[in-house]
Structure formats: structure tokens, C-alpha cells
Specification:
By secondary structure, the protein is of the alpha+beta class. The chain has eight helices and nine strands. The chain has one domain: Aminopeptidase. The protein has a nine-stranded mixed β-sheet, sandwiched between helices. Belongs to the acetyltransferase family. GNAT subfamily.
């Protein structure tokens, strides 16, 4: 099961990626009530109970790897729930080809958009996928009207390979050649991998 990242923290300059735990669910659930986010992520609103169920399956499913995106300026220090800005996921959807992953990024906090958070979170996740999961090909499926996201992936060397007019979705792809791998590791060489258990504040010292 995809528990490989359950104690992994990827700390970058702007964002820090942490495993998705039950503590993140209420805030995540709150975000997903937004019609705009439902549209951008092509998802249905779930009840809080269903969202907890989803979080458990995310942790246990072998074909998904997910991190919650925190604002590095706030965490560690502030309560995680108050530092959350979005999430980033890898889906290993092709049983025939375990080196292909679909990547998905959501910066849910409006105040954090357009500040490079999504870009850094995506780079950290891609470098993690390449290093730890043996991924050599990435795909991103994005709604046609989500120009900011399409533009960001193109800056990360993704090329548009398909347009689905029924789902109004664009598919972008990146094959990780040696050169791309080198570039990816350079882009993320400022980041560090830490233990989640060590960085989390012990219960009882959380600022109430």
C-alpha cells in the first residue's frame, strides 16, 4: 500500500508537503464546499464522514500518493490546519506501466494562488516520484478553462498531447529524460526530506 510517504515531509522554500492525515480532513472538507474548486477539480461535494473515508483510502491505496501542501512560512510553528494551502497527488493509474503517474495539484486558498506555491509543490512531488517511486512519465489532466494551471505545467516542460472536448480537458505530458531528471533535481535541490513524526509538535504544546 502507498504508505511509503506516511512519515515523509518534503520541505521547500515556499511550501512544505506532509502526509494527509485525519487532522487535515475538516479543513479539506471546508475547501471542497467551494463550487469553483469542485469545478476545477471535477469533483462532487462529499459529506464530512465520506471525506474521512476518502482520507483513509488515500493512505491505504497502493495506486495513490498524496501530500497536503502547507505554507512553509507558517509551519512548523502554527497548527497544521491553519497552514494548509492545498494538496498534490500522484495516481499510478496504469497497471501495465508503473512508471507512469498522473499528477494533480490544487492550491485551494485563494490568497496563496499566483505566488509560486503550486509550482514548487508540483516540482517537489515530481522529484519525489522520480526518486522514490521510479516514475519516468508524468501526465496532467486539466480543465480547458484553467489557464493558470495549464500555463504552469508548460513552464515545467510539460507538452500538450491531447484535448478531450467532451470533458473539456487538456492532457499534458512530460517524459523524464536524463536531462529532465537533472533539471528536476536542480530545481528541488534546496528542499529537504524530514521525518513527519519529528517535526510534528507533541500533543499538548499546540497553540490553542
Amino acid at each position: 500500500a502507498m504508505k511509503i510517504n506516511q512519515d515523509t515531509v518534503l520541505r521547500g522554500a515556499k511550501v512544505t508537503l506532509v502526509p494527509y492525515t485525519a487532522a487535515h480532513v475538516p479543513r479539506y472538507h471546508e475547501w471542497m464546499q467551494s463550487e469553483e474548486l469542485q469545478r476545477l477539480t471535477a469533483s462532487e461535494p462529499l459529506s464530512l464522514e465520506q471525506e474521512y473515508g476518502m482520507q483513509r483510502s488515500w493512505r491505504e491505496d497502493a495506486d495513490k500518493c498524496t501530500f497536503i501542501v502547507l505554507d512553509s512560512g507558517r509551519w512548523p510553528g502554527q497548527v497544521e490546519e491553519n497552514s494548509m494551502v492545498g494538496d498534490v497527488n500522484l495516481f499510478l493509474t496504469n497497471a501495465e506501466d508503473p512508471t507512469l503517474a498522473e499528477i494533480e495539484i490544487m492550491i485551494a486558498e485563494p490568497s496563496c494562488r499566483g505566488r509560486g506555491f503550486g509550482k514548487e509543490a508540483t516540482l517537489l512531488m515530481m522529484a519525489y516520484g522520480v526518486r522514490k517511486l521510479g516514475i519516468t512519465k508524468f501526465e496532467a489532466k486539466i480543465g480547458q478553462e484553467n489557464e493558470a494551471s495549464i500555463c504552469m505545467f508548460k513552464k515545467l516542460h510539460f507538452k500538450e498531447v491531447a484535448v478531450n472536448s467532451i470533458f473539456q480537458e487538456v492532457t499534458l505530458r512530460l517524459d523524464v529524460s536524463d536531462q529532465e531528471r537533472q533539471w528536476l533535481l536542480e530545481q528541488t535541490n534546496h528542499s529537504e526530506e524530514r521525518s513527519y513524526a519529528e517535526l510534528k509538535q507533541p500533543a499538548g504544546v499546540l497553540d490553542t
